[in-house]
Write a structure and sequence with these properties.
The structure is a single chain. By secondary structure, the chain is mostly helical. It contains 15 helices and no strands. The longest helix has 17 residues, at 81-97. PPR repeats lie at residues 13-43, 44-79, 101-135, 136-171. This is Pentatricopeptide repeat-containing protein.
């Protein structure tokens, strides 16, 4: 049979192994498929999808989602449309049972974001909240990344506001970076600067540097950073920034000045 033929093959590769895993899963031979999967020295998204599908077909939703978590969060492998379709029964089961597993939800949100289904990432984040799970920094970063890549600024701003004001989660440079990216795409860099501070000079400096990298000829960011340094009594840093401005020949927008 196919298994005997496969055992006799000398030149096994990812493609032939994937074909066998897919076939074994369809024949209900999950144990053999899992063994073959574990023995594979190299795996791709087809390998992961095949074994995930096997566990979910066998109603072993926890195991299937655990593998999906490893694929997305640990291996950084981007799921395909087939992968997303494979995990849908497990997601429905998790939603119906109100299973409280933050890592599972984060992996699902990340998976949707990586696949480019940004709207769904936001929807599942809100579903997660409805069952009483409290999102953390990593979960918020996943949904902000989804909004950033999808150009969903209004949604991203709403999630950011929820993170800070509803859940009391302090944003870090990565969260701000997502907002800066969203605002930069829509040509709203000045608004990005104003969001960068919240009274935190160090954070503001890092975010402003990110803005500088995006558009080196824009002078408003230099002015804002200069004023914040001066206001905090960091005059040496302010003077250093003034010199950097002269070196880059950044122009000042009307109404902005180094005074």
């Amino acid at each position: 049979d196919a298994m005997l033929l496969f055992d006799e093959m000398h030149d096994r590769n990812v493609v032939t192994s994937n074909v066998m895993i897919t076939g074994l899963v369809k024949w209900g031979k999950l144990e053999f498929a899992s063994f073959l999967y574990d023995e594979m020295p190299e795996k791709n998204v087809v390998s992961w999808t095949g074994i995930i599908d096997g566990y979910i077909r066998s109603n072993m939703y926890s195991e299937g989602l655990s593998l999906f978590q490893r694929m997305v969060l640990c291996e950084g492998i981007k799921p395909t449309e087939i992968t997303i379709l494979a995990i849908l029964p497990a997601i429905s089961n998790m939603w119906g049972s109100k299973r409280k597993n933050l890592v599972s939800w984060k992996s699902i949100i990340s998976g949707f974001a990586m696949h480019g289904t940004w709207k769904e990432a936001g929807e599942y984040f809100e579903r997660m909240e409805k069952i009483g799970l409290r999102p953390n920094r990593a979960t918020f970063l996943s949904v902000l990344n989804a909004c950033s890549h999808g150009g969903l600024f209004d949604g991203g701003l709403r999630f950011f506001d929820k993170m800070v004001n509803k859940h009391g989660v302090s944003p870090d440079i990565e969260h701000y970076g997502c907002l800066v990216d969203m605002l930069g795409i829509t040509g709203r860099l000045e608004e990005a600067e104003n969001m960068a501070f919240y009274g935190n000079i160090e954070m503001g400096e890092r975010v402003t540097r990110k803005i500088m990298e995006m558009e080196t000829g824009y002078g408003g960011d230099y002015v804002l950073m200069y004023n914040n340094f001066a206001g905090a009594g960091r005059f040496e840093d302010a003077e250093r920034l003034r010199r950097l401005t002269n070196e880059r020949n950044a122009f000042k927008l009307p109404g902005n000045s180094f005074v």
